[in-house]
Amino acid sequence: MKRSSLLKKIFHSLKTHSKRNATGASEENTQDYYASQWSLMWKKLKKHRLARFSLLCLIVFYIIVLFANFIAPQDATEYDSDYANAPPMQLHFFDEEGNFHLRPFVYGIESTRHPETYRKVFVEDREVKYPVQFFTEGSEYKFLGLFPTNIHLFGVEDPGEIFILGTDGMGRDLFSRIVLGSQVSLSIPLVGVAISLIIGLIIGGISGYFGGWTDAIIQRIIEIFRSFPTLPLWMALSAAIPAGIEVVKMYFYIVIIISFIEWTGLARVVRGQFMSLKKEEFVLAAKIAGVSTGKIIRKHLMPGIMSYLVVSITLAIPGMILAETAMSFLGLGIRSPATSWGVLLQEAQQIENVALYPWKLIPLFFVIFSVLCFNFFGDGLRDASDPYKK
Amino acid sequence: MPEPILRVKDLNKEFKTKSTKLFSKSVPVKILKDISFDLLEGETLSVVGESGSGKTTLGRCVLNGLDATSGEVVYVTNDEKAVDYLNLGKADYKKYRKDIQMIFQDPYSSLNPRMTVFDIISEPLVTNYDVKKKEVEEHVADIAERVGLNPHLLKRYPHAFSGGQRQRIAIARALITQPRVIVCDEAVSALDVSIQAQIINLLDDLQTEMGITYIFISHDLSVVQTISDRVAVMHLGRIVELASVDSFFENPKHPYSEALLSSVPKPDPDVKTDRIILQGEVPNPGNPPSGCEFHPRCPYATELCRTEIPELKETGQGKRHLSACHYADELELRGVWHANQAK
Amino acid sequence: MKQMRANKRSTEQPLLSVEDLKVTIQMDNAVLKAVDGVSFTIEKGKTLGLVGESGCGKSLTSRSIMSLNPKECETTGEILFNSSLDQKLKGLNILDLDPTGKKIRSIRGKKISMIFQEPMTALSPLYTIGNQIMENILLHRTKNKKEAKQIALEMLRKVGISDEEKRFNDYPHEFSGGMRQRVMIAIALACNPELLIADEPTTALDVTIQAQVLELMKSLQDELGMAILLVTHDLGVIAEICDEVAVMYLGEIVEKAPVHEIFNQPKHPYTKGLINSMPILGTGKQRLEPIEGTVPLAINMSHKCGFYDRCTHRIQGICDVQAVPETQVSSNHSVRCFLYNEHEEDEQNA
Amino acid sequence: MLKYIIKRFLLVIPVILFVSVIVFFVIQLPPGDYVTHYAAQMAAQGEKMTAQEITEMRQNLNLDRHWFIQYLLWMRDIIFYFDFGHSFNYNEPVTAVIERYMVLTLVVSTITMAFTYLVAIPIGIYSAVKQYSIGDYIASAIGFLGMATPNFLLAIILMYFSYVNFGNPLLGLFSSEYEDAAWSWGKVLDLAKHMIIPVIVIGTASTAGLIRIMRAQMLDEINKPNVVTARAKGLSEQKILYKYPTRAALNPIVSTLGWTISSIFTGSTITAIVLNLPIQGPVMYEALLGQDMYLAGTWLLFMAVLTVLGTLISDILLAWLDPKIRTEIKGG
């Protein structure tokens, strides 16, 4: 938060004053003085309500990613064309007679033709009730990728179906697909950032620490990389991904393409931070004390840039989520049968589709929501990132 | 007569200015020009001058925090060996590096905010000696007490301390390897007067107790006078006067010193000295004037000053009072001594 | 005592009188009293020095006079500016005025001007020096651009900038630190203000340049006759140009006296401590007498003397429990310390 | 100043050359080439090409040579004949294809840019001056949402609303009756109507970003000591705002103008595909997929050149706006 220089001065002197007090008399929050940067950051972050809430949401998101197979009632390949384009089902607590059921239930659905447009429409069959059951058996999968099981979080008994967010054009449960899609949509950015970070750290670190010629050359290279327009390059690169390759490989390609563009940004952050930290007097002090270069980097420089890195990583992720979505949306990224939020949105490409089956836009909500969460969290982190500055 | 502990010979430092213009060559700016002096064991040598005079660069070059462009710094070790401090071999590096330490001006940026005070103080010790954890703790507690820090607070981070206390931490860090020389770079300039006096006294006590030699870099002549044995005045990268503190304040032998002394505001409304006010500003070190670099501002400058660079040489004040002025012995320059002694 | 002050006021009204000025800042979970009941007066054409260590509230005090405090500060009290030229302003409390309103704007820059510590950041890097001087003149003195330029050039000459025609079109970054401070002074004095507030005007400058700037301020004061409020932490600068001195500690004025008395007969233990801890040029290698301890925090202070913990003369049971009253030790020397309560009685008895 | 510009311009040339190599490398990356693609198309229509024919075709098009040779040939034609090659898909010179779509692309881009700046700057200023007011919160919320919503999806949403409310999703840039008609007042109005969604959609992302940058810049500037100085002179708040912080905050923003040019050109691509706009983006997308390499390559190169030139323009603008840089350049 920027304040006038005068106020800054006041707060600054205030801060030092309060510390002086602490060293003299005992004070309530002397805890702070034993607190490391991270705990101070955490303390500040906790005050940021929006960021805290976003963090909570992100945690929930990633728990879903981890247990996607368990949470999704169907697996990615299951479909039933009888139920194509079914609207979201309502969960009922009260039946026709108005009796309350503690366990929610859904009615069976039947498709009929609309008398005028002859379009398929679904109506609830009030005769059949399917209570929602928890820990039901369904398709086989490996829990956490390790233990084979067929237990799913919830479902209804055969022949009932539960589509809480409706189905797509092939009759696949949208909720399941969104949950499964989150595995790709939310993990690609993480892996992408990790790769960019490694490249960025090494190249930016070299550039920033050594400076001089090395720096000049690396900077030129980064400049050239940056002078590529991102989007067309993405398109061109992903057009180069051969069709019909394995899902894993495809995933890998996409990550590479995304991080290919992103690393320059992180390299710049790392370089800038190294450059400014290098000039701090405590680095010179360590050098004079005879501390080796490696140790200076490890003990003095790295901890200093860590907080900035965490911030820039958090703020880089939303861009990657959007990039993956855009690529998959255009059919250039993840392709069916693999699923991601972008893939799910492909069906929303035709306006008619959206007009008739508006629930197909639901994945969009997840995209926006996760991007917002990362943005807010990143913003909060940025404010908290330097707990020593007011 | 104390022996020299450091012999600085013809030290030069150039910086390449980063040219903002394309295709134009960067011009090296000379920050230090042929600096030579001996630092005597146990003394405090103050280096004074305006901002941009190169005093901070000098301090950093002497202890090899910055690479000097040319020249040498000879360090006379405890066992009377003379080693080239700027080019220490690997074994010597390990042995002697720790003998010269530094205290910085800004007690905020000189302490890593991400390390505890204990880690900050112990770092030089752990780096330079093979010591057990227990010994380290004892040493740190010992030194902390000596500089007036409560040893119970060492697990705290620097942000828990005020400016004055931070400066004590920095002093403790500098002392822990038991150095023989400490370079104090504007070590008290950032502090309030009442705190400044505490730190000055602390430095003084440490010198008496441990026999440390100080290079005391400062722009504040009043502070310099309370702590130094000798004074070196720098102007545009050159030492223009080098003298014992009494001789310097009583009989300055360079017009620049005279101007500096008379510019210091005296905290005594009854003393109305008619002061010498220098005209103009410090010249740009990238484009220094010809001849004596002080001549554009010097009230006594002659044609000779415009053309010839004066050498730093002995004056009538004796062997140990050097001045780089063509007219060092001819000018009747005013010091500040008599004014107060008269009072 | 009160009578005496009243008498003084009736004979001649001071140019500026500040009564019980308080500036508080709301912190996360506490209230900081940055300035706590400060009162002083400045006579026409005189110089008052406000001296104190960092964080004592001297800058906020000086800015309150022009109602320039940041929004986060709550400022109360009375600031009366008795312009001899503008009768309309008589009796108006500056703090009652809308801080962005017309009235206060007609005072700022015209009747009262200000110079700051960092001339580089105080000037905009985007406009020429000429533009920035003329702005002030066009606002308060003349609407005629040609005339304004003439005045501006004259001001530049006055503050010792030679080659003013050319320099007029230069940008601040083309000036050195000392020159920039001269420009700031030119801007501040362009409309012949009656009061100049100088907030650490020489702190960022080298001694040689500081000497130039102080000399310039003195000579311009002689020439233009404005009063100066000089805010600084440097007692040397105070001794150099002030007539009267107010020593601030922890948001309060602890001692106020003519400059000679402050240096020759300081009364408050803090003032004494300050003077003793200052190295004085020309006295040789000497041992300083520092004030022990550090400045406490002005948050949630109890009723005690702020200097209590550091004071060598503290009286347990008095200084730490009672609010310290201001004591007048002579007609123009007041001190906020219990040590002098008796003096007052003695004096009155006598 | 002129000398500076020329120098900068000379520096740009090697960068563009380097970029062009990479561009060419990237477009030939996809497995197969235009001939494979063409053969597959023919096969789909029932006309099988023989291996002989395929080889011949490849030789004719120089596609059998090493990619770097192909690059050199392409570059030679560009430099000496201003010939960017032949579009296989359209069966006409690349330049002709680009020319056809250029005008509308420029119209859309320019209007979008104007929209972005006109909306973002005032909102940014307002947001900063009234920090933490309701207006600021609303602007920030819109800003965040705008950044978080992929703009092609925003397009779908807007189309959906337009379709539901007006029964017309406003696809394309013209209604069918004006598509091939000569320019008339009606056609212009029709174009304007069709521009609304693209401009909002394409502009939103950059507007949102710009609002946040402008706000941050303003907050920075508003608290600078030179504003206090101006206040101490007795200037009115409005004058202060306009003369000091706004002017200073605009400098970095105006200097990003250069970068914005290419980002708006490319940012519109996906949206244009969704909205079926007859501008460059979709055409080039097809070219990339159909391995129409010269068309795709030219487009990529064009974008890269735009980015590089944009950076150049930005640097020049910055130098022109900042007195400090200006004197340095003058001095040399």
TrEMBL record, chain A:
Keywords, alphabetical: Membrane, Transmembrane, Transmembrane helix, Transport
Domain ABC transmembrane type-1: 182-378
One record GO biological process: transmembrane transport
InterPro entries linked to this entry: MetI-like, MetI-like_sf, OppC_N
Regions crossing the membrane: 50-72, 186-212, 224-245, 251-270, 305-323, 361-381
GO cellular component, one term: plasma membrane
Domain of life: Bacteria
Membrane topology reported for the UniProt record: Multi-pass membrane protein
Keyword Membrane in annotation: yes
Location in the cell: Cell membrane; Membrane
Family the UniProt entry places it in: Belongs to the binding-protein-dependent transport system permease family.
Protein name stated in the entry: Binding-protein-dependent transport system inner membrane protein
UniProtKB/TrEMBL annotation, chain B:
CDD domains: ABC_NikE_OppD_transporters
Annotated ranges, domain ABC transporter: 6-261
Single Gene Ontology BP annotation: peptide transport
Entries under PROSITE patterns matching the protein: ABC_TRANSPORTER_1 (PS00211), ABC_TRANSPORTER_2 (PS50893)
Alphabetical keyword list: ATP-binding, Nucleotide-binding, Transport
Nucleotide-binding found in the keyword field: yes
Taxonomic superkingdom: Bacteria
GO molecular function: ATP binding; ATP hydrolysis activity
SMART domains listed in its UniProt record: AAA
Family: Belongs to the ABC transporter superfamily.
PANTHER family reported for this sequence: D,D-DIPEPTIDE TRANSPORT ATP-BINDING PROTEIN DDPF-RELATED, TRANSPORT ATP-BINDING PROTEIN
Record's protein name: Oligopeptide/dipeptide ABC transporter ATPase
Organism, as annotated: Gracilibacillus halophilus YIM-C55.5
TrEMBL record, chain C:
Protein's recorded name: Oligopeptide/dipeptide ABC transporter ATPase
Superkingdom as given in the UniProt entry: Bacteria
Membrane topology: Peripheral membrane protein
Main location: membrane
Every ABC transporter domain range: 16-275
Annotated GO MF terms: ATP binding; ATP hydrolysis activity
Subcellular location: Cell membrane
InterPro entries: AAA+_ATPase, ABC_Ni/Peptide_Import, ABC_transporter-like_ATP-bd, ABC_transporter-like_CS, Oligopep_ABC_C, P-loop_NTPase
SMART domains: AAA (SM00382)
Species, as recorded: Gracilibacillus halophilus YIM-C55.5
UniProtKB/TrEMBL annotation, chain D:
Subcellular location: Cell membrane
Transmembrane segments: 9-29, 101-125, 137-163, 195-214, 257-279, 299-321
GO BP terms: transmembrane transport
CC per GO annotation: plasma membrane
Keyword Transport applies: yes
Pfam families registered for this protein in UniProt: BPD_transp_1, BPD_transp_1_N
Residues in ABC transmembrane type-1 domain copies: 102-318
Domain of life of the native organism: Bacteria
Membrane topology listed for this record: Multi-pass membrane protein
Keywords linked to the UniProt accession: Cell membrane, Membrane, Transmembrane, Transmembrane helix, Transport
Family membership noted in the UniProt record: Belongs to the binding-protein-dependent transport system permease family.
PANTHER family in the record: INNER MEMBRANE ABC TRANSPORTER, OLIGOPEPTIDE ABC TRANSPORTER, PERMEASE PROTEIN
Full protein name: Binding-protein-dependent transport system inner membrane protein
Native organism: Gracilibacillus halophilus YIM-C55.5
